Batch of 2 targets.
Target 1
Amino acid sequence: VASLLGISRTPIRKAIARLAYDGLLSQEKGKMARVSVISGQDFQHYIKLRKVLEVFAAEEAATLVTDKTISLLEVLMQSQKKAIEDNDMYMYIDLDSQFHLKIAEISGNNKLQDFIEQINNQLTRYLVLSGKLSESAEKAYEEHLKIIEALKERDAQKAGEAIDLHINNVERLS
């Protein structure tokens, strides 16, 4: 790969190590790196972690959110609605990720944001491969609006419950 790109092996090794760390590649000593597989059990483990972390993030965010940030979330939802209407699932996935990471960012906890990003990257792979993403997109969009509504009200409990329901539905539809 390095010779094809005309670069040294070091950046390639670092990129492979990062992908392995993120769980996207599996790498055994002396063997080639391979794209890692996500089993149904892995999915269940990731979704349980996601639920705990994102409920916490939403509850924290509800106490810290600003009107400006709520406006940003609403703009994301307008774009997400258009992606659904255009059946652009790649754009939808990107916007969904931005939405969830923005809530984690609002919580003010950078480590929480990193963990949520890593878990959601794994779950996104599973959801894309399941082929059910387009079926659940509209429902997820509606649930996102309810999460925003709870954040607008600065209601931590309601925000946590709304994101818990959302993640439960993602799990059920997968």
Target 2
Amino acid sequence: SYHATRDSGKFGGVSIFVHTNFSSSSLILSQDIENNNCLLVNIDRYNVKVAGIYKQRESNLRNFLSRLDFILDNYKNCYIFGDFNLDLFLKNNDHGIKQYYDFVISSGFVFLNSLCPSNPTRIDPSRGTRTCIDHIISDSMFHASNLEFNVYLDDLFGDHKSTLLNVCTSERNC
């Protein structure tokens, strides 16, 4: 298990839990600029990278994209999960969110979670909002022919849906 927390503020941080059947190693464990978190783990046997990112709502988008660009350019066969605090449901109405969306796509990654408004990743009943601020992006479907990946969103706790990745190898059934 790997975990990174924010130094300031009460909330935020990322965790990655790897099943004990998989050996893994930490590639990046850092407090990022503007109190954002990034954690990157390699699943050694399959050379699959799993990243967890927390982007603080108030952080500068240009600085954040610069740091994300480093990961997208330097780590392939990668799954990136996170609370990006950028509502993809608004990508057609917000220039910054559209810029982020286009940046991810142009880097050869795709969004794996549904962008359909009926599938929000965060529901805030007090504000009456349903948003898609928790994203799952990957380029791995282009690199991992011997693995099967299934992405799940579940209401395990809190106001965000938990994002879970089930990795199945050709050696066992899912």
